[in-house]
Amino acid sequence: MSGRSSTTTPAAGAPNQLRIVEGAHEDLDSGSELPFRCGKILGLGASAVVQMAEDTFDGRVFAHKMFRSTVGRVQNPWTRRAFLNEIDILKRLGTHRHIINMQWSYVHGNEFGILLSPVADEGDLNSFLSAIRNTRTLPTPEQQSILYRAYGCLANGLAYIHSHAIRHKDIKPQNILVHRGCMIYTDFGIALDGTHQSTTTTGLAEGFTRRYCAPEIVEQQPRNSSSDVFSLGCVFLEILAVLVPHFTAIVSDHRPYAERLPDLFDPDKLSCHNQDEPSIDEQQV
Asked: CATH says 24-117 is which class?
């Protein structure tokens, strides 16, 4: 892991205890004891698992993202690339209220891991929206406030990402956290840093989520930061479908958004609203 500093600070009364120092990286042998204990699983992905983690020295709580370096018994080189890429991207982005913060990273034998903060108190946006839909009622006033603010939060966060010549490349509700009413972008494993290259890419697109990706990605055409904007627009539609039940067809239709663009501009095809039902304002009386 050339180019990354390794910082270890001994704990008082425990001179050999490894400490979690913000922004540091550690290359550890497989026999070393990690300075945190894992708790409940927060999320599962194709290449990583995210768990709650507690610092064994001072009790700080993190989200521990552990990358799977093997698929069965086969080494997966993509995992290491995604791990290193995520570290580099998060260091480039630094601290921002709408970006997940990297606290510490390590290699421990065949395990690659990152400690992230905050641990979202409401989980990811997909779970947040699903929980509201499952009640079959309108969002509470507090939930409405969070979702109305989400538009500005997410636009601001994406503008910040793009201002650093970075493309996220996989914006979707599952990669957005909800914490204390704030939206936070996470999962930068396939993000592109365009600092020393063009942010426009060509060739075979990999690692995207088809439901939210832009038409040019599906068609394997040149794509750039505007592809992120399209994906964010899809997220905005799913927030709208919770705030305005007239548009629940947006979510109930599981086709990729890029395949149904004409429908997205046709109110009659988006609406599942029964004209005999009371309006939103009437329901809130």
From this structure: alpha beta
